């Protein structure tokens, strides 16, 4: 039986780690340029390393090599002069797919999402502006925080117990509400139009599906966390799985039409 103290045992390290990550991210978004490129490249490479490590735990050299390839590809894509991501990223995805590992094709799909997300952070900042990237981060964070507290306090039916046994419907819906409030806040501050209020929960849902996808690969590979790089959170994949999926959807929408944020 779970006691109240057990229920909140991970809260303190989660909060401290989250504060540190938000502070670092805010500074880097404001600075932009090379500093931002290096941070995103490092995070992307570490996530690729975590993914390849949990799916091929007996091949650490291969995991490191693919992570280095991911870093070089992102730097070459975003550097000056730059090369197209369409020429670079497939090599990372192919390396994940063809090297011996568990669930090679799903792993390659996750690797593709991680690479596209890293690329998307630069595209969103450069083309839609700082408010757009702050909105995306706000949606993901609000969805995660609201979902965490609502799920722990309200409990109730599980969202997808076979894959993510801790995620509840109460937490999922609370995440949508938190995301909508973030969208509303940006509209009221003059950094978005009213469709943003409806778009925000959809992006939060995409992020929640990213969390479910990562839970699936972890359960299939028998690991609790993708790594132990972040106290209270596990690995970078554990922390940024939602942002990865949300960023992919935002990038697709941005290519189809102008986002209702950053105006």
Question: What's this model, at a glance?
Answer:
This protein has 10 helices and 2 strands; from the N terminus they run αααααααββααα.
Low-confidence stretches: none
Mean pLDDT: 88
Number of strands: 2
Distance between the termini: 50 Å
Outline = globular
Helix content: over 70%
Strand percent estimate:
under 5%
Verbal overview:
By secondary structure, the chain is mainly alpha-helical. It has one domain. Helices cover 76% and strands 3% of the residues. It has helices at residues 4-7, 11-31, 33-55, 60-78, 85-98, 104-128, 130-154, 169-188, 195-221, 236-256; strands at 158-160, 164-168. The chain has a two-stranded antiparallel ribbon with strand order 1-2. Strand 1 and strand 2 (164-168) form a beta hairpin. It is globular and about 50 Å long. 44% of the residues are buried. The model has no long low-confidence stretch (mean pLDDT 88).
